Amino acid sequence: MKLAVARNEALLGVRCRACGLLQPADERYVCGDCLGPIEPEYDTAALARSDLRRTIEAGPDTLWRYAPLLPSRPAAGQWPVGMTVLVPAPRLGAAIGVPGLMIKDDTRNLTLSFKDRPVAVASARAVELGLTTLACASTGNLAGAVAAAAARLGMPAFVFVPADTELSKIMGAASYGAVVIRVNGTYDQVNRLCGRLVDEVPGWGFVNFTLRPYYAEGSKTILFEIAEQLGWRLPDHVIVPVGSGALLTRTATAAAQLVASGVVPDAPMRISAAQPSGCAPVTDAILDGMRAVRPVRVARTIARSLAIGAPADGDGAVQVVKRTGGSAASVSEEDVALGCELAARTEGISVEPAGGVVVAAARAMARRGVFKDGERVVLYLTGSGYKQGHGDAMSLAPAIGPDADDFFAAYPTARG
Ligand SMILES: [Zn+2]
């Protein structure tokens, strides 16, 4: 297929992770030889000779500033995505015993989750390939990200979600005009359904299936941004929530590419994994001696965006954690809720339960003595609590009359 848009000169092709074959970056989404997973590969030596750091710094204030290390070009009219803040979190750090803690706040993306990043890259690729419809299997956040991106590009969107996905996320995706297909089944069953459909719906791009090699590349940009925001150095340690495992494995890829391109000094960076114990195929495998991932058949957790029982990049995630000297925690539902509460009350950041999982995992790892003195630890907070609702209104104090006496009767200590 002939591509309509000038492509990234540094993109060498796509390499199979199973058999190692380097092949053209065309419309294929698995290895043309063995059907293994493929990943874009870049000429990092040429990028190192090109003063990549300056190219990036002169780029747009979006994730496309990292275009030399991304496999597609931005599509005309796309919403700006990325460049979310990295902030110190001293009060949360004190509460959970991690001095020097920092937060990468991806609750502030276009549709309030980090999924806008992979969708930006995948939807740009869909435009390059001349596809006409965007689709995905989603636990909730991806549906919204795909729906918004498709609306902006003037494309129809079909998003497939488990029928019991939070109504707020379903309605969010529907509000952008997407067709929301609710499926009676788990996320893994929804994913398999999409796998059966891909060959029968020509012109459709399933962002996390037929566009997956491009989609997953968008996840690298969180780490790219963190390194730039730290003044072009890698953080010492990042804590990553694990659903499919793609965000965690691509964090390692991103760090390796920055080092190979001469953008940051080579330095150790530990990568640790966070999952809820109700769906912990990856973190349990890490804690159980770095064994192979065993799929979880029935996920039971409020952290719905991490409820993926058969993670596509699960074993890859275990290997990355092992190789980087990272760790993991599988945290209880009570601790997930506590994690959300701590993030909100100590730092003023509202996170969905997946964020609570990350906070609780950092707390658990601190108690185990995982962190070293002076280590700069960054939490990935990947989804906003505002998409989730904020719990039970019954826990609120009664309303008062529009009257100062009413106020002081209810809050006598306010007078000091
Ligand atoms: Zn292969």
Written description of the protein model:
This protein is α/β, with parallel strands linked by helices and 416 residues long. The chain has a domain at 86-112 and 219-387: Rossmann fold, CATH 3.40.50. 37% of the residues lie in helices and 14% in strands. The strands form 3 sheets. Strands 4-5-13-10-11-12 form a 6-stranded mixed β-sheet, with helices on both faces. It has a 4-stranded parallel β-sheet with strand order 8-7-6-9. Helix 3 runs antiparallel to helix 13 (333-347). It is globular and about 75 Å long. The N and C termini lie far apart (73 Å). Mean pLDDT is 95; it is low at 1-5.
CATH topology name of one domain? Rossmann fold
What would you call the shape?
A: globular
| Derived structural class | alpha/beta
Write out the distinct hetero groups bound to the structure.
zinc ion
CATH class bucket of one domain: Alpha Beta
User: Helical segment tally?
Assistant: 15
Q: Pick out the low-confidence regions.
A: 1-5
> What's the story with the biggest beta sheet?
6 strands, mixed
Give the strand line-up of the largest sheet: 4-5-13-10-11-12
Q: In the CATH hierarchy, what is the architecture of one domain at level 2?
A: 3-Layer(aba) Sandwich
- How far is it from the N-terminal to the C-terminal residue, by CA? 73 Å
What string gives the helices and strands in order? Answer: EEEHHEHEHEHEHEHEHHEHEHHEHHEH
Number of strands: 13
Mean pLDDT: 95
* Percent in strands: 5-15%
Helix content: 25-40%
- Assembly classification: single chain
Radius of gyration: 21 Å
